[in-house]
Amino acid sequence: MELAQVRLLVTDFAACYRFYADVLGLKPQSGAAGGPYEKFSPATGSAGIALQDRAMMAGVLGELGGTVTGHRSLVVLRVDDLDAYCAEITSRGATLLHGPAPMTDRMRVAHLKDPEGNVVELQEWLLLRT
């Protein structure tokens, strides 16, 4: 078994597409900015994040058609230099909710939200301090 992707069900596909492509700088697979589906990949690694139009999936799973409230997911992205990446994405319109700040002695994090309210955690892994 292999994890292929984490898929977010979104109502404003275009706004989320712009956020993951233009703000976070992830590479879209096909350029389908209008949806109803797109997969985004970081520069390294094989895992990806995909967006799917919520109304389309509600046609398959009717229970998804209701109003969504609250935080629905947490997407985690690892970066090499958290401070530099945060400066880069805030210059492109991201608003940090927290950090960059230590989470443990081995990790620093920052948090922000995408246009649908999904929480994105940016992680910088640190060498174990002895």
From TrEMBL:
Span of domain VOC: 2-125
Keyword annotations of the record: Dioxygenase, Metal-binding, Oxidoreductase
InterPro entries in the record: Glyas_Bleomycin-R_OHBP_Dase (IPR029068), Glyas_Fos-R_dOase_dom (IPR004360), MMCE/EMCE_epimerase (IPR051785), VOC_core (IPR037523)
Gene3D superfamilies membership: 2,3-Dihydroxybiphenyl 1,2-Dioxygenase, domain 1
Biological process terms in GO annotation: L-methylmalonyl-CoA metabolic process
Domain of life: Bacteria
One GO MF term: dioxygenase activity
Protein name: Extradiol dioxygenase
Source organism of this protein record: Streptomyces naganishii JCM 4654
